[in-house]
Amino acid sequence: MAVKVTGRKPSFGNRRSHSLRATRHKQGLNLQVVRLEDGTRVRLTTRELKTLRKDQKTAA
Fold it and tell me: Which pLDDT does position 19 carry in this prediction?
């Protein structure tokens, strides 16, 4: 089972029809399962993955 690292939650808003009727809507996170170097699987958002890869490039 993958572990979710961040405490981020989905954002909520309204869908608007042509007649401007509002319906509640949930926009989930883009979670990806990633295997770390020590073998553990972690669920990260794509934004976090991008940041981690960017940090690894600058460190190397």
Answer: 97
The contacts of residue 42 (CB under 8 Å, 6+ apart) are 2, 3, 4, 5, 33, 34, 35, 36
What's the pTM? 0.67
CATH of span 3-59 = 2.30.170.40
Residues 6+ away with beta carbon under 8 Å from 34: 41, 42, 43, 44, 49
Domain boundaries, the chain: 3-59
Which phi and psi (to 5°) does residue 6 adopt? -90, 165
- What secondary structure, in 3-state letters, does 9-34 show? CCEEEEEECCCCCEEEEEECCCEEEE
